[in-house]
């Protein structure tokens, strides 16, 4: 016997991924638990550092890469998911790593360009950047547009300097990542670990916009699943508007969002309240527990902070499934591909002779 998180139907009624098994109070494992991949979802994976949230996201990615009709994409700020692409005897998954990602400048609207560069739209330089972003489609054209204005020299210089900074990040390209490139059955890992917060957010914004637009315009057939590790990093930057769009309007076009974070208190309320599946590893910060408590459904008759319910060991989770209004204690299954998120240990270093 097994249960499918995220829907009332049976295993045979659409693609699913094996998540793990029920966990009894004595720690023993019970029936298997699967996740629904047939319909769109907003999932939130939380847990303190070292308790398996990135590992669990890797388990989801493996399942999505093997499921029919979906296009999984991971935005990887820590550089730990490229192991999905490693050869594994008998149990590997199709995966592609993009380690030098670039998005189109038009994936950011004028106000987002100002926010990205730290300029007020009401300032002279910010106003020039706003106008340039509105009138052009490449960074080169934006710089030329600024130079062609009759604005004060100081404002033009400031705007141009900020645009050159954005150009130096090397994440903007008129032929950047598009939905066709992301719409395959293989899981696409977008490695942004070498980027600072601002360009990292720009890439995430571009990817999220591309996936959402592609489904709205029927450009791709597969249903996109966007997976974000360290999601609080993106909800606090220029990527947030695109993520909010998926959370609040992604269901109709069939776009899913999976957010993993060790700081749910840093995720905006909409990121928690709009999630129809919550997977919680161990949490001990009261602020994080309170953040989840504010969005706790009425059918949940206990708190995640209850001592006898709180997961204790890595891999143990409590799952709140809003689709079926059920709560589950589970053990996440072992990954088939190597996990890249383990912390290094001094004891692993070979001593010099």
TrEMBL record:
Catalysed conversion reaction? Couples ATP hydrolysis with the unwinding of duplex DNA by translocating in the 3'-5' direction; ATP + H2O = ADP + phosphate + H(+)
* Gene3D superfamilies, per database record: P-loop containing nucleotide triphosphate hydrolases (3.40.50.300)
| Region feature Disordered, mapped onto this chain | 325-353
Question: For the Helicase HerA central domain, which residue ranges apply?
Answer: 43-119
One GO MF term on file is: 5'-3' DNA helicase activity
Name the InterPro entries for this protein. HerA-like, HerA_central, P-loop_NTPase
Pfam family name, one: DUF87
PANTHER family given in the database record: HELICASE MJ1565-RELATED
Q: Which family does it belong to?
A: Belongs to the HerA family.
Q: What is this protein called?
A: Helicase HerA central domain-containing protein
């Amino acid at each position: 016997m097994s249960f499918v998180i995220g829907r009332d139907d049976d295993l045979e009624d659409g693609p699913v991924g094996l998540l793990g098994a029920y966990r009894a109070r004595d720690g023993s494992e019970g029936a298997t638990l699967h996740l629904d991949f047939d319909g769109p979802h907003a999932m939130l994976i939380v847990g303190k550092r070292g308790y398996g949230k990135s590992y669990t996201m890797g388990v989801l990615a493996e399942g999505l890469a093997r499921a029919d009709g979906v296009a999984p994409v991971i935005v990887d700020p820590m550089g730990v998911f490229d192991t999905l692409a490693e050869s594994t005897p008998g149990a590997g998954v199709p995966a592609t790593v993009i380690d030098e990602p670039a998005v189109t400048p038009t994936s950011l609207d004028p106000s987002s360009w100002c926010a990205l560069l730290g300029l007020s739209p009401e300032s002279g330089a910010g106003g020039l950047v706003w106008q340039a972003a509105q009138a052009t489609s490449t960074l080169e054209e934006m710089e030329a547009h600024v130079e062609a204005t009759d604005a004060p020299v100081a404002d033009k210089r400031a705007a141009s300097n900020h645009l050159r900074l954005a150009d130096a990040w090397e994440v903007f390209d008129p032929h950047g990542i598009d939905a066709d490139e992301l719409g395959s059955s293989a899981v696409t890992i977008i490695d942004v670990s070498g980027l600072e917060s601002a360009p990292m957010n720009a890439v995430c914004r571009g990817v999220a916009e591309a996936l959402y637009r592609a489904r709205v315009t029927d450009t791709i057939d597969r249903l996109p699943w966007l997976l974000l590790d360290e999601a609080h990093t993106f909800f606090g930057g220029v990527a947030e508007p695109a993520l909010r769009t998926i959370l609040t309007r992604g269901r109709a076009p069939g776009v899913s969002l999976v957010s993993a974070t060790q700081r749910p208190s840093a995720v905006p309320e909409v990121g928690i309240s709009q999630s129809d599946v919550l997977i919680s590893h161990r949490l001990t910060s009261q602020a994080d527990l309170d953040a989840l408590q504010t969005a706790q459904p009425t059918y949940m008759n206990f708190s995640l902070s209850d001592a006898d319910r709180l997961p204790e060991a890595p891999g143990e989770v409590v799952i709140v499934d809003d689709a079926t209004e059920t709560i589950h204690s589970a053990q996440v299954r072992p990954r088939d591909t190597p996990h890249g998120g383990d912390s290094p240990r001094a004891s692993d270093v070979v001593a010099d002779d």
